[in-house]
Amino acid sequence: MAVDPSIGGTFSAPSHTALSKQQGLALLAKLASDDAFRTRFEINPAQALAELGVHQEVILGLRPSCVVPRRLASKDVMELSRQRLVTELDSSALTFQIPSVKI
What we know:
single chain; mainly alpha; two-stranded antiparallel sheet
């Protein structure tokens, strides 16, 4: 909740959706390797996300800055980002410990 001083009350800040980890990895892989997809994403990010199978409700709920047409970073930068995300996911999976009981 946030305070709105103009009315002296509170309101809920807008919540935003996000891509799943799998969708994020798929997006970065396409942006790192597929020139035609990169061009479509630069022109219409929402339509390109739909091509990847992202549900319309998720696309509509993304922050507006996520779906603004723009020039993308290089394919090398996208691949580096993808590799970093994979590493983060791998390291978070490796740190999971199953609880045990000592008798």
